[in-house]
Structures are given as C-alpha cells and as structure tokens.
Amino acid sequence: MAEETRNPSRDIPLGLLGSMSIITVIYCLMALALSMMQRYTAIDPNAAYSVAFRNVGMRWAQYVVALGALKGMTTVLLVGAIGTARYTTHIARSHIIPPFFALVHPKTATPIYATLLMTVSSAIIAFFSSLHILASLLSISTLFIFMMMATALLVRRYYVRGVSTKKDLVKFVVCLVVIILSSVGTSAYWGLRPGGWVGYLVTVPLWVAGTFGMWLFVPKAREPKVWGVPMVPWLPALSIGTNLFLMGSLGGDAFVRFGICSGLMLLYYVLVGVHVTYDVAHEHEEGEEKALRGKVEDGGDADRSVA
C-alpha cells in the first residue's frame, strides 16, 4: 500500500494505529453490552449477540446483527484481496511468477491482474476445502507471518551490511536465537504440561536474558527517521514469544498442513525462484551501472565543451 500513499511513512502508521484503536474500543463496548444483557454462562458461542437480543425481547436486533456480520465478511474479503494482491505484485516483479501479474491499471494505478488472480484462486480453494482446514491454515500462517515480521524488525534495527561489525552480528544472532528458542520452549512446555510451572522457570528467564542482552550489548545500526516501533527490542521480542505461544496452542494437523504447503513453496523457490530473482537483480545492477556510466560521460563531455 505504500506505493498508493502520498506519505507512507506517516500515513500508514497513523491509519493502522487509528483504525486499531477505534476497533479495540468498539470491541470492548460490545463485550460490555453483551455481558450486561445476560450472564456469561448463558452466552451462545455460535451466535452470541443474536441469541442475547432474542432473550431480552429485541428480536428485530438479531436481523441487524446478521446484516452486520454479512457486511463484515464482505469487508474482510475485500481487505484480504487488497493485501494479497500487493504481495503478488511484488512477487511478480521479481519474476517468481509471470511478470504479467505486476502490471497496474493505467487509470486507477492498482494491480488489477494480481487482484483477479488472488480473488479467483481464493474462491476456488474455499469452494473445495472445508472451513476447519482453512481456519487452521489461516491461523498458523498469520501467526507465523507476524512472528517473522517482528524478527525482521529486529534485523533491520540491529544489522546493516557494511556498517555492523562481525562481533556485533554474532552477538545479535546469539540473542535472537535465545529469544526464539526460549519462546518455542515455553509454547512446547505449555502444550505438553498444561498444569506445570517448573519449565517456565527456565524458558522465561532465558527469554528475558536474550532480550536484555540484545538491548544492552548490541548497538543499533539504524534508527527510524519519521516513525518507528517503540521499546525495541522488548516489544518485538514479546511479539515473537506471543505468536509462537499461540502457534503452539493449535493442533498438530495445522502444523502438518503448514509444513506441506511451506515445503512445496520452498521447493518451487529453490528450483525456480532463486534463479529468476538472481537474473532480475543482475539486470537491475547492470542498468544502474550503465546509467551511472552515462552520467559520468555526459559530465565529461560538458566539461570539455566548457573548456
């Protein structure tokens, strides 16, 4: 979405924080209203608000709730199509998939072909798959992406090629591995021993030690110019731990399906993606060198003409 925003470094964070704040307040008010209409033991997990309104004599309100739920589902579909189409556009620009899908509409400047591809593909997959399988894959994929984004944020803040020293890189990698492994250990212990607590005396202090070590011993190589995530590395490390913990709460079938899909995509990337992305990057570097050489030659001709 950054390409379609006038000032992405300012507008996108403001939009995300503003919308999430409004949604959080609305959800809290909805939960408060639901708990005041009936006891929590009587709440229907499948149709909480519809049943609650019907029990208090407001049958007309359940139709409003159904209309809102339908509108919410269509909104989620549109937002998902917008986001995945932008990912597909960048993938197509790297030639991992046909570059035809990276073309944008000349009037609206939106990736119309990528949007059609993801919309049709999602519809076909949803039509031939069960809701349980899709929900488990969506949950574990989303949590994994969030965890990787937090990891990428730490890498971006603490490592810059040509700036960070090898010693700082080693310290950063060690601390990051400790954070990830301790988070995995916490999640695994919770799944294997739900009532235990001894394992947490090992995994939680390790997480704190890894995060504190990164904060104390590893210098930051980059600072954001306009807006940045605060409390680094504590907040990204907490995000890594939380997402890995939630991933551990999913069933084993979700990991099997996620592993199969990830393996197929990794195999495709190794056999096809690595080669095409290397060729595209090589062509881009050659184009930059030719442009720079042309500027130098133009400057030399101008100097000779002045002389």
From TrEMBL:
Pfam families: AA_permease_2, AA_permease_C
Domain of life: Eukaryota
Record keywords, A-Z: Membrane, Transmembrane, Transmembrane helix
Any GO molecular function: L-lysine transmembrane transporter activity
Family (UniProt): Belongs to the amino acid-polyamine-organocation (APC) superfamily. Cationic amino acid transporter (CAT) (TC 2.A.3.3) family.
Signal peptide (residue range): none
Compartment(s) of residence: Membrane
Domain Cationic amino acid transporter C-terminal, first and last residues per copy: 227-275
Membrane topology: Multi-pass membrane protein
Transmembrane parts of this sequence: 12-40, 60-87, 108-128, 134-156, 168-191, 197-217, 229-248, 254-274
InterPro entries (alphabetical): AA/rel_permease1, CAT_C
Name by which UniProt lists this protein: Cationic amino acid transporter 5
Cellular component, GO, one term: plasma membrane
Gene (UniProt): CAT5
